[in-house]
Design a protein that fits this description.
With 402 residues, the chain is an alpha/beta fold. It has two domains: 10-183, Flavin prenyltransferase-like (Rossmann fold), CATH 3.40.50; 193-401, 3-Layer(aba) Sandwich (Rossmann fold). 35% of the residues lie in helices and 23% in strands. The protein has 15 helices and 21 strands. The chain is globular, with a radius of gyration of 24 Å. The chain binds cytidine-5'-triphosphate (CTP). Residues 197, 276, 278, 280, 282, 307, 309-311, 330-333, 345 line the site of cytidine-5'-triphosphate.
Length: 402
């Protein structure tokens, strides 16, 4: 599936001699699948760990390993790759290459390209904990960051030495996500701030039980990524999901409906739009027991009370201040009378746009057949789209609405 912000972009992927070099194969593969042109440059050390042919087969392009190869592109023009890069990503980057870059050395194809490149640069370090924590490494990183380089911090876990600690290369999916974030920075939503709610909320019955729903959170996360890819600053307020927080978004993890409402109200004065993609649990137990409820003879009944309606609270906040912003985009999950029920919600919550979905078909599925209803606009029935494609459509509507 092609990802808009990556499609037809030229990414120069630098690979250095860390054991994690094999993970760069997955990065290259994800970028190619997303529609990017990927030019790989490997250091001599990296070629000891992964064969250049592996990258060549995945990217369908020649791999550069030697600045002075008379048959190579850099043998003709040593800054050819730097000139056509829309972005340069070095993943993994070793302490050694980091030090060279911070010093301005140009002793191989990779360091030379870094010096010549005018596009944004991302580095994803991978090394032993002691090397990572060494003041020299940290100083070199500070230098690169001061020049505008984005650093994808390494993670903690099992290291090649057998030790546990910080220094593992970030997951390829996070590195690709950071590439998307950086490429989209100057997009049409740059300077805008969008709050997105996602996932289910949970209402505690006692310390081990709760009321919730089947929402996976995928729609909300896809919207957060789509508006981020167009340059927006994003606050993603998420109930419990199995998903990874997207790169470059401000992530607020919540559990209950009240927590989600408070987190949204916190950012309201600052946001241009609120997208309510969360499947908010409308009722919660009147009392949540502090101790685990023991089973007893006979039945068990639970008194439920209404939870706040988050989008209603956003509407009330706007009305109290006579503001036209933030724009409100909501979702309607219906089992019958789709258009009529969604239109009622649009009016009741004074939304600017509502995305109407028939459930349970879309719950947990990667596809969605949605209908977009906007005030004073004809109803638009969309074909079956992936959640990512639908999120792109919504992001485009948001550009228009703002
Ligand atoms: N919503 C919300 N707070 C709630 C309930 C819903 O902010 N307590 C938001 C959802 O995120 C969604 C929209 O309102 O964008 C509609 O949600 P939905 O559950 O379909 O509608 P409800 O208003 O709850 O109505 P009903 O459950 O009766 O269909």
């Amino acid at each position: 599936m092609s990802i808009r912000v990556l499609c037809k972009q030229t990414i120069v992927l630098g690979v250095t001699g860390s054991i994690a070099a094999y993970k760069a194969v997955e990065i290259a593969s994800r970028l190619v699948k997303a529609g990017a042109h990927v030019d790989v440059i490997m250091t001599e050390a990296a070629t000891q760990l992964v064969a250049p042919l592996t990258f060549q087969a995945i990217t369908h392009r020649p791999v550069t390993t030697d600045l002075f190869d008379p048959r190579g592109e850099l043998g003709i023009d040593h800054v050819a790759l730097a000139k056509r890069a829309d972005l340069m990503a070095i993943a993994p980057i070793t302490a050694n290459t980091l030090a060279k870059l911070a010093q301005g050395l140009a002793d191989n194809a990779l360091t030379t390209t870094f010096l010549a490149v005018e596009s944004p640069v991302i580095v994803a370090p991978a090394m032993e904990s002691h090397m990572w924590l060494h003041p020299s490494t940290q100083r070199n990183l500070d230098t690169l960051q001061a020049w505008g380089t984005t650093v994808v911090e390494p993670e903690s876990g099992h290291l090649a030495s057998g030790a546990e600690g910080v220094g593992r290369l970030a997951e390829p999916v996070s590195i690709v996500d950071t590439i998307r974030f950086v490429l989209g920075r100057d997009g049409p939503l740059a300077g805008r701030h969008v709050a997105v709610t996602a996932g289910p909320t949970r209402e505690a019955i006692d310390p081990v039980r709760y009321i919730s729903n089947h929402s996976s959170g995928r729609m909300g996360y896809a919207v957060a990524e789509a508006v981020r890819d167009l340059g927006a600053r994003v606050t993603l307020v998420s109930g419990p999901t199995a998903l990874r927080a997207p790169a470059g978004v401000e992530f607020v993890a919540v559990t209950s409906t009240h927590e989600m409402r408070d987190a949204v109200l916190d950012v309201l004065p600052d946001v241009d739009a609120v997208v309510g993609a969360a499947a908010v649990t409308d009722y919660g137990p009147a009392v949540s027991s502090e101790q685990k409820i023991k089973k007893a003879e006979g039945g068990f009944s639970l008194e439920l009370v209404h939870n706040p309606d988050i989008l209603m609270d956003v509407k009330a906040w706007k009305e109290a201040r006579e503001r036209t912003h933030p724009i409100i985009i909501g979702f309607a999950a219906e089992t019958e009378n789709l258009i009529e029920n969604a239109q009622n919600k649009l009016v009741r919550k004074r939304m600017d746009l509502i995305v109407a979905n028939l459930v349970p078909a879309t719950f947990g599925s990667d596809r969605s057949q949605a209908t977009l209803i906007q005030v004073d606009q004809p109803v638009e029935r969309l074909p079956s789209l992936t959640k990512t494609e639908l999120a792109d459509k919504l992001a485009d509507r948001l550009v228009y609405l703002l």
